Amino acid sequence: MATRRLLVLLKPFDAYPASQSEGLSRIASLQLQHLENRRNVHKDAVNFCQNILRHKPVEWKALLRKDLRQPIRDVDLVITVGGDGTILHASHYIDDSVPVLGVNSDPTQPEEVEKHGNEYDASRSTGYLCAATVDNFEQILDNIIEDRISPSDLRRISIDVNSQVISTYALNDILIAHPCPATLSRFSFKVLVCRIKSDDQPSSPLVNSRSSGLRVSTAAGATAAMLSAGGFPMPILSQDLQYMVREPISSGEVSSLMHGFIKPHQSMEATWFCREGILYIDGSHVRCSVKNGDRIEISSKAPVLKVFLPHRVQHVSSL
């Protein structure tokens, strides 16, 4: 068996604020103590995973995610230790040739939330896309090394602005909005057919929107902001994209077009009509500016991301 080359990408330890409880209220002090405990649990998980790797037939190196600045190449597997945010960060540097295993270093404990939820936010990491925790990391790693399990293909979003492709693909979602959340976003959009099939419907009517912006999500992102806004959960391996206009004003006759799906053979073309605008990719860390008249094309033509998924996620079904 050939030696596997691994990159271990770590959530930074300073992601949790240092505990300084002097002069704070009791609730604020409890919250800071909780965050300090989260940092310690994360550190323990990192040490545990690294110790396991030292005893496996693999070559590996560890890197803090904030120090990742170049595309990931020449490795057989990326292991992220953190939560979904660390997987998202890694995905922006990975094409469809390198699979990812996510380790949730600090899973939410339901009994802890039930006990302390009325006093402070006792939640931890959701880890929706993380197949492993410290409890099963070694078993899953062995299964990967021995080729007993395979990764799944997750659809991503490709975006181009004025025919220039954005180099970062979205694993969760994109949001196009005015940089000031209290300012109206003006844009138009329509869904276009990319490949003509015998049962294809013509392109959708042009929709002119005044709203809080436009969100488009993948199946992986459909349980995040999209679901919170009233969208639908999707099967995790769906190739469709879901879109929703945020808080539309007087949608009237086109209200049914404010929320829908973009099929693999379709794309969405949007035109921005505000002086300023921001296109956010997977949250606020990756963004690009748009201006009045810019044309934005959105599709699922991006390379897939290969991820080892937890068993429970593969069976999420659409409502």
Care to describe what's here?
The N and C termini lie far apart (44 Å). With 319 residues, this protein is of the alpha+beta class. Helices cover 18% and strands 29% of the residues. The strands form three sheets. A six-stranded mixed sheet has the order 2-1-3-4-18-5, with helices on both faces. Strands 7-6-17-14-9-10 form a six-stranded antiparallel sheet, with no helix packed on it. It contains five helices and 18 strands.
Mean pLDDT: 92
Main β-sheet description: 6 strands, mixed
Count of helical regions? 5
Strand content: 25-35%
Spatial sequence of strands, sheet with the most strands: 2-1-3-4-18-5
**Fraction of residues in H or I helices:** 10-25%
Q: Determine the structural class based on helices, strands and strand pairing.
A: alpha+beta
Radius of gyration in whole Å, from Cα? 21 Å
Reading the helices and strands in chain order gives EHEEHEHHEEEEEEEHEEEEEEE
Distance between the termini: 44 Å
**Spans of at least 5 consecutive residues with low confidence:** none
Q: What is the count of β-strands? A: 18
Shape, per Cα inertia axes: globular
Q: Which features characterize this protein?
A:
319 residues, alpha+beta
Topology:
Layout lengths: L3 E7 L15 H28 L4 E7 L12 E6 L1 H8 L8 E5 L5 H7 L20 H9 L6 E3 L3 E4 L2 E2 L7 E5 L7 E9 L13 E5 L1 E5 L7 H4 L12 E6 L12 E4 L3 E7 L4 E5 L4 E5 L4 E5 L5 E4 L11
Parallel strand pairs: 1-2, 1-3, 3-4, 4-18
Antiparallel strand pairs: 5-18, 6-7, 6-17, 8-11, 8-15, 9-10, 9-14, 11-12, 12-13, 14-17, 15-16
